[in-house]
């Protein structure tokens, strides 16, 4: 059904009311429009919202309805005429109440960046293609929003009302800070610029970030890493602070370690699919390769920047 503005709906409703009270008949075409509205409303509004909106309308009209029952007429309208109008208002009120009080606000950035100013004073910059969903209850005890795509958050500070961004497969919790969330396929990342954040994802421990640190999953499920950036010779150099795997294949673990430490790892082909659960925290490449070999029940030998795992 083609969308109709609320003011147009209101005008049409009261026009029907006026015709009904004057005894005029509703035309087949107008009955068809009302039936289309009914079908459209039932699709848009679930049973809970319909029930709540009916209660709102009836509570507001109850004093007048009672008076009509007592006098059998109110402002020249019979009880049956007003009852018919109330039923029509309830149907339309369901849709209006849903849009006004329940339907979440959805913001999208189509081709360029888009700044969203939230009710608590936080500002979200959506990058192209991103989508932010904000419930009508925001801000509540916990400030929660949902994000698809990439965005930069400048969160208004509050020591008692946490701000949580639910992204695709992970979430970021803060009290007030500036950070960026990036989501490209399976690759997820959080870059922290100011303050502190806690990042959680399924199957991994909570990661706490400080400024100039990044959380990433390297594109793997049940994987989490924290990387810090320090200046060396005028350049920002990444340093791996922590790395966690929970039931991840050795082949994928080795690929992450090779990339992170710029090393090469050789291992028996029949162990490539073996699942690894391990936390590599603050260790060097030598220490972490020793730990990996121990988990696998293998020995490790080093030849320059190549680590050889063997039975």
Structural notes for this entry:
- This protein is 34% helix and 36% strand.
- The chain is an alpha+beta fold and 311 residues long.
- Strand 4 and strand 5 (123-126) form a beta hairpin.
- Helix 1 (6-21) packs antiparallel against helix 4 (79-102), helix 2 packs parallel to helix 4 and helix 3 (47-71) packs antiparallel against helix 4 (79-102).
- The radius of gyration is 30 Å and the shape is elongated.
Structural class: alpha+beta
Average of pLDDT: 81
Instruction: Give the amount of beta strand, in percent.
Output: 35-45%
Low-confidence stretches: 1-7, 72-76
Helical stretch tally: 6
The number of distinct β-strands equals 21
| Strand order within the widest beta sheet | 4-5-8-11-12-15-16-17-19
Radius of gyration: 30 Å
H/E element sequence: HHHEEHEEEEEEEEEEEEEEEHEEHEE
First-last Cα distance: 69 Å
